[in-house]
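Exercise 7 asks you to align residues with tokens for two separate proteins.
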Amino acid sequence: MSAVPPQNLIDEWTSVQASLKQQLVEGDTEEWQRAPDFKGLERVGGVDLSFIKGDDINACAQLVVLSFPELELLYEDCRMVTLSAPYVAGYLAFRETPCLLEALQRLERTQPALMPQVLFVDGNGVFHYREFGVACHLGVLSGLPCVGVAKNLLQVQGVVRSEEHLTQISELKKGGDSFPLKTASGRVLGRLSALPSALPRPRPPAPGPAQFGRQHQARVYVSVGHRISLDTAVRLTQRCCRYRVPEPIRQADIRSREYLRTHCPSAHTCG
């Protein structure tokens, strides 16, 4: 699956992205999104894929739905899947979205009352090379409000790991602090947000780089996936966090890895 795909396939994917992008909604569409306490929001979903180390074709696709604001498990769907598309930077959606969309469709067929009102995706939304990442792709195809949450910086459109970026990170002192991810043209594609319950506990003074490394893990890159504003996406991410990532994504990751450990005990897993 590591072979470089033919250019005509890349061109086709680029065309599909551009077409789907025309349906993207970057704004709040639901009443609960506008409520200060998210009144009316009862179910939040999360999706993730886990792989057996050394196997980039077979994966465990996981969907969870949690109650809100309690963040207790209401539903889960866990399936082994075979991925047919290669990994290409900027085109992750074509590799991962089909199996995740199928999980949502199974839920809609069998228990529609448990469909999530918003979906957290482990990946980027409009913070993307062509402003249409996996969270946008899944959001448009499913019709659900989606939030993209990434743990690492995708360096696009002038947003790079520069001295200025590192300085901005160091100035995030407490949960809820954030700063915009601006392109060279000034467009805001997302926010780097410090998560409230994930910030490290006070420790004795330590060398700067090591201390910085611990703190950096408590911050995520949030961007719009579909049918939600950036401010609401950041605010909801904060509310859904107990540890270092929003709980819907965390639970999807934990449960998919546990499935692989149970069914493939001799294999090491990777996210």
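Second protein for Exercise 7:
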Amino acid sequence: MKVLVINAGSSSLKYQLMDPATREVFAKGLCERIGIDGRLTHKVPAKDAKYEFEIPMPTHSEAIQAVLDALLDAGHGVIKSASEIDAVGHRVVHGGEKFASSVRITDEVMAALEECIPLAPLHNPANITGIKACEKVMPGVPMVGVFDTAFHQTMPAKSYIYALPYEFYEQDKVRRYGFHGTSHRYVSARAAAMLGKPIEELKIITCHLGNGSSVAAVDGGKSVDTSMGFTPLAGVPMGTRAGDLDAGILEYLMGKHGYDMKEMMTILNKKSGVLGISGVSSDFRDLENAAKEGNQRAELALEAFQYSVKKLVGAYAAAMGGVDAIVFTAGVGENDAATRMAVASGLEFMGVKMDAEANNVRGKETVISSADSKVKVLLIPTDEELMIAMDTAEIVGK
């Protein structure tokens, strides 16, 4: 089965055409500057080839059409007919409480996604636009929605409830939702496979660390807690996002500097995190270089990030009554040996013992703890696109 995976942003659209059974990726790429002018980067892994085009993309419909044209092109295409695409899997950021698993997209599902827009105003409209564009360009092809929030719907009420008047949850659906669920689900399943044990018997802490970061407690294959909250702003400090902070700070700064709520949210989402602390960059590679050159604020930003992740690892081990494995994934988790070591060091009391040589690796699925470590520490590159394709194939296959 050939599945086209679509991840639509407000002005961009990532895609992969793959066979989830064999895991072969036929082509993948990125549409950028949708609504401005339009640029398509198209890669064909089998040829180790990369193609770039300037294509007008006033809307997502033109972007989807450009993707299809690239896939069908005589020179750099990988299919001879659009009918070879059996299904389309869409990443959808927010499914609210309505979706605890991936679903085939129907009119009822689209209506539910529209209802979730207030919960993810920056993401869901783009995801919905991507779905509608695909339906317009590929009528009749089955579509599946795979939700970032779905995996965390197994959290018990004590994990997701906020200590606010209860009617805010009942009437306004204010609760912890969690995000990166597709990634947490994928790497926890891979961890169980690597350890050769049923996931139902394991307590796993998954650390998705990148420009956006979240940590999850996965007990028996189910998410029981996670660090992101009502929005992806909560949890550890991220590239530009503040993470958890005292809400009283907002009132204090707004009163002192005259910010309105929109300006304050821009600061929290775009100007905070490790960028805010360091004043250097939101890119962890830039921070490491600056820290090596003696920039103390860059070093502080890295330390604050690593400390926040370490605290969550300890908290989630306590919440689950133990831990069998800790997983590092995503851009920073997969490529930054220093961050992995900083997070895992000092956890010997709970059975973690790192292997510095094994940890000196980038983007490779491997065990990075020592042979005698009671808690296994794993590096597992995430593959959200494969997870979306697998879900899509399973649902359409039914």
